[in-house]
Protein 1
Amino acid sequence: MLSIVIPTLNEEKYLPLLLEAIKKQGFSDYEVIVSDGKSEDKTISIAFNAGCRVVEDEGRSPARQRNLGAQVAKGDTILFLDADSLLPDDFLPAAYKEFRKKNLSAAGFYLHFNSPKRVYRFIEPAFRIMSYLGQYFFPASVGVGIMASKIAHDTIKGFDESIYIGEDYDYINRLAGVGKYRMIASTFLYFSVRRLEKEGVAPVLWKWFVGGIYFIIRGPIRKKIVKYEFGKY
């Protein structure tokens, strides 16, 4: 069984789109857990009305909310998705089948940016190359989509909630230490560009670059070296 965990904070605009995409998948062996940070909009009611399991906490951080969702997960495999993600057709059956066939402990996904702007057509192949090479030399993945075995997640005690930013990189790095990490090759995820559009492509890319270099050189980022806000988009 697959447990889909979605951390949310004021996601009434995007969550319905993701939940509808999940329902349209050719896959039924799953549960959806919405882990909410006390949203002030209709996020929780949307989740309840869609038949999701809901957990709430005032921690308001992706790491905290992913961990809370994973704690109540019943599946042998957990799929962490951001609320603004969108799924291509047959994403769930393809990803779950490949994950189990390859006996993975963790997996990341190649991303397609959900915008026709030319700049994103340049970013996509660069990200794909880095992701492909990283699975062999430097395991890391972005939190927009991460698949992990429940056993491996519990073994490493989940996400490190003391990390300010880059908890997804740290999580994958530690999962790779207890099992096998690979990028899923049979499908992909649509990546929302809402943060890039609001903050600007260059500033966000620079923030990612600084965070990545810091993580490689000094390890997990536990202080505010860059500005990051959860639930502001």
Protein 2
Amino acid sequence: MNYAERLHTFQQRLGLTADMAFFPISADLHYLTGVPRDIPTYGWTMHPGAWLEGLWIAPGKDALLTLPRMTAEFGGLSALTGVRMRVLGDWDDPAALVGEILAGFDLPPGPRVAVGDRTHAETLIALQTLLPGVLFTSGTGILRPQRTIKSEDEIAVMRRAGQITEAAFADVVGHLRHGMTELDVISEVNHQLKRHGSLGESFTTSLYNAGPHHPLIFGDRAGKSLRVLQPPVSILFDFGAIYEGFCYDYGRTVSFGAPDPAFQRIYDLVMQSQAAGVAALRAGSAAASQVDAAARRVIEDAGYGPAFRHRLGHGIGMDVHEPPFLTKGDETPLESGMLFTVEPSIMQFESFSARVEDVVVARPGGGEKLTNGFQSLIVIE
């Protein structure tokens, strides 16, 4: 990826609306510089001076990455190339270092500072002290147009992420057995993702399982994780791989036990709905809301409208969920190179459910799916 070109383009856009920008370690920073972010943890982990951790950017100036020593050293970033870097010692004053950087930017009084949406409040509070009268705006909003339209190189990376995801799923299917717990299945998914080359899970791997004797439960991950999966039950997968900073999102449906006609019917409806949504992803001649409507109509006309409980899909790339969204009310015009999930479902609390999900590229003639395996209902006898 040409990070220097990305950063230069952003600096030109930045100069139209703000005097400087700050991005913490995040997908935005990864996109601009290649500085990786790590798999998150449940509890917050920080180092002394962590509020300055990120990239400082001003139009016409060299961007500067500042990192606490622990982040630089233990994160393997000390030898990073392609961006200037300053490392804060464990006992150094972060405000003094940032003040020196800001002085070099020659900012006007009451400067306009664009910050990434993942910036911590601690950073903003420190900047208010260092820059009296500062006016904050969204740096992510300025960067968003660059990230929304994917290049063919970026699409190729996402295609590879899809291949890893689908290869992992193929091996998961080979390990499925009646009597497994939901935790057993999720653990197998996460193991296979890493075994096939993913950094980890692009989001928390989820199952939405339902059947006549296996009620669908939203949330309560710990409470339902040890439920035993015995036929008849539908198992709905939702997971994805990480590859070179990009996130995949994927879904398939498995039947433990031979499906009855009602289960097969809702599965077929979901697949027809996805096909309608993919066909409607016409760059240059449709809006996001029209894609949702085209796919939703299939399920509504069959009488299952209330069981389609969410939007059809969302933008995706270096974050799992990105604008725009395939939903009613989002009138964003589709452009070639936009990536979306197309993920219709029929979710029933006391009966069988079904879902499918693939990442799809918007093209002038309709969408191009990046994963195409396992189109028929998978049955584990």
Protein 3
Amino acid sequence: MSTSFHNNIEDIFAEACELHSRLNFATAEKIYLELLEKNPGGGLIHYNIGLLYYQTEQFNKAIAHYMKAKKLAPADPDLLFNLALCQKQLGRLHDAAAGFEELIQISPKELDALYNLGNCYRELREYAKAEQAYLRLLLENPDHLSANRNLAYLYHLQKDFDSALKYYNKVLALEEGDPQAVHMVAAITDSGAASAPAEYIRDIFNRYSETFDEVLPGNLKYVVPEKLRSRLDSLGYPLSLFPKCIDLGCGTGLAGSQFGPVCNHLTGVDLSEKMIEKASAKGIYDILQVSEITSFLETKSDEYDLAVAADVLTYMGDLAPLFRALTEAMGEQALFCCSTEDSDQPAFSLCPNGRFTHSPAYVLKTAARFGWQCIDQTGSRLREEESNPVTGTLYFFTKKED
């Protein structure tokens, strides 16, 4: 093969790299593919077009070229890392974990590989392997925030509360006021917190928004919206169509889809903007608002005839602010329905899982303080946690007549 041919390929490759660096992906891809027709054994060309496909989220194509590059040249850490990232993006977690393991054999102190390896094993529920990956990372960088946070989560999930507390406190030392760590330390130590921080709730549900509709009804067998609607139908309430309604903590619209047919106008409110995006795509609501629900209600007066709070009070301890706001925001003959998880304590408790439970006596007493009377109270299975049923109470309240 002539020197001029080599020089020509090198010049064309340099042009493609320049276009690639300027994010002119379409032209760069065309040139890379033309080069591969002339030189299919060009490992660097396969690597570069693999990177281009990764950047444009064409992960299957990226993997194909990365695999060819891997066969044509000695194992390269960047190549192995990018290949494993592509596999992780496609949910091929076992392949991704194997790729990160291979990289760590070459570069034992590759922190990004250790972190991603821990994440793969965490998602695969291979918690012992995830723990070891995070601990190896922390030996090299004890102040790695995300590794400390994920390790705290792993220990918390496995009910090793002493270890979880150690790493939550490390998170707080690295990032003072971290909302998840603050809330979980309160949950483990039973510090008497009155509610979950808004930032914690927002972060949790933004993170779960993509899988929320599948995980809750499927894995967790969550049935609160259906049961609330069924109880409403059996009450014989005077209104069969409510003029203005609000779904508090609407999430992706699981409750809205149940109550929409009995609402002439339905507003959904949630702290998580990603949940609101999911709800918006369903076309259930007339109005959607990203807001903390009590703050939102405090801006309204005699506005709503029906309010629904399905699995929302579990993120509030003290219910007085909510009932106070509802009193002002709801009309004279309004109906409020909600669910709680039951507590055997006199009022409310923050459990180690970060959720609040409420005694029925406390719920009824607090509602009555702000002019609400219970017209229906039903014990019910709400969902499952680790295959065990979680029980609670469904309530329907109306305003007391003056």
Protein 4
Amino acid sequence: MSWVTKHSPNPMSLDSCVTCGLCLPVCPTFRITGDETASPRGRLTAMSAVAFHGAPVDDRFADIMSLCLQCRACETACPSMVPFGEVMEASRAEAEAQAPAPRSRLRRFTLVTALRSRALLRLATFGASLLSHIGLLRRFPVVGDQTRGLRRLPWRVRSAAGGSWGPQDGPVAMLLTGCVADVWFSDIHTATVEVLVAAGYRVVAPSKQTCCGALASHSGFADDAAAMAKKNIAAFESADVVVADVAGCGAHLKSYGRFGDGASDLAAKVRDINEVIVEAVREGRLPSFPATDIEVGIQDPCHLEHGQRAHTAVDVVIEAAGFKAVPIDRGGMCCGAAGVYQLEHQKMSADLGQAKAERITRTGIKTVVSANAGCEMQLRRYLGNGYSVQHPVEMYARQMTENR
């Protein structure tokens, strides 16, 4: 074997692939390139070559793994139930150990050090806001292009971490505030807290929590992701339910079972906010509002559809809010956001983002919801003016406020 780390892909998982090819039609990178090495089957073949035939983990291997969006659509299509997300993360950990990408130290600083530090996030946010305000952000085209997808660049971070809301005797719902979401999407957290309190929960956002570790894990920094998981396992230990309002974070939290003591218990408590709303509406703890003819387009984040298999909960939330839910491109390809993928593979990300925007444009619907912050940014970038892109919990919370 050519693996060198404790995080190497599980040989049994690799061997379970029967190379049937059912993953090919659902893989975005294969659909665009037509290249077998850009398919799940091709990537698993490359991993097996290392695991079973002594092939090297070199730059070519790293490139094959890097192009994957980790959308996990192949998991939904796979009859053998290959845990592709896990083996992909493990293969990237090997690639990072043996054939690190250019600027690997900068990537680790960004995805690990910065995301774990609220002080650094505040500093970076203020700096980007200042550059934008004085018109210099356009001199940094990569950063400037990404920030077009934000609702706004805040001057300061309004972190929800450390907060507590609602009745003292209610079941405890602990909120994952996360990293980037806590900085740039605090309105989503505000709406989530409002809805949870209305559902009878005592909401707590532990101050000792940290980034969920998804971006670090996806990028091959496995030890760092495990350290983040360990900190969160301790922070959320006393929760009755752990709520995530970013689909990518929720999917990663639900996979915590691989991280050791207490991890499976935490993973079993994790719910996406849309799942929580659906349960509360069905139990009568949250209201359903009168139906209207207003159509709301639903974009299914990959990590809610394929990672959590909970995407239809959004339909129920939008209908409960009184709107007509119109799924857009259900079962379709990834929007191309995929965390830092949009920075590292800009052309592929842009092609997918434009394709998703065109699919939405053809419907004529102007209000779109997405349950993932990264997808929301991507949609806003490529849809442009004239479209409203929101989180479903925001639409539901607004109806609560307007119907009091």
